[in-house]
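Practice problem: Elongation factor P-like protein
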Amino acid sequence: MPKASNLQKGHIINIDNHPYQVKQIDVHTPSARGANTLYKVRYASLISGQKLDQTYKGNDNLEEMTVDKRRVSFLYRDQNLYTFMDSENYEQYTLSEEALEGQIQWLVDGLEGITALLRDGHPLCIELPQTIDLEIVDTAPAIKGATATNRNKPAELSNGVSVLVPEYMTAGEIIRVNTETGQYMSRVKS
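Answer key — structure tokens:
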């Protein structure tokens, strides 16, 4: 049973026998003496996708829901359904667009390193790898001498997402992007 002060993004919590995933945590530390630190947590229901906001004191106990974690890879999309395949037993799991909120733009064919969270053999959601390598397909030309400055320019990636990259980057380069923040991390050596 984790305490509210130990809660992390992605944890699955049991609220009224329904699985909710932690999406955001805001910490409020009051300035008054003896006041408790408050943790405002935004959850998303893994069944309906509905949002839920709760506020806790740091020592409040929460009930973590036990889920099975399976390594899967992304196979294909069929309208608003996304199919994944278990890397060990080749079983296929399908999730709706609503269950994958905020993750769809990172799903490229054959993406591996994905973890599916299952309860009683049914998929609830997925966890993407922390980073993904993608190719820059369109960006402004590189500026000579741009390595000396710390300025960025927009670049469109092979999955259609636009991110800010350093000015010296060119189309055709492979970069590493953080799937949680959607920000450029580094260039991938080829």
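Discussion: The two ends are 45 Å apart (CA to CA). Students who identified this feature from the tokens alone can consider the problem solved.
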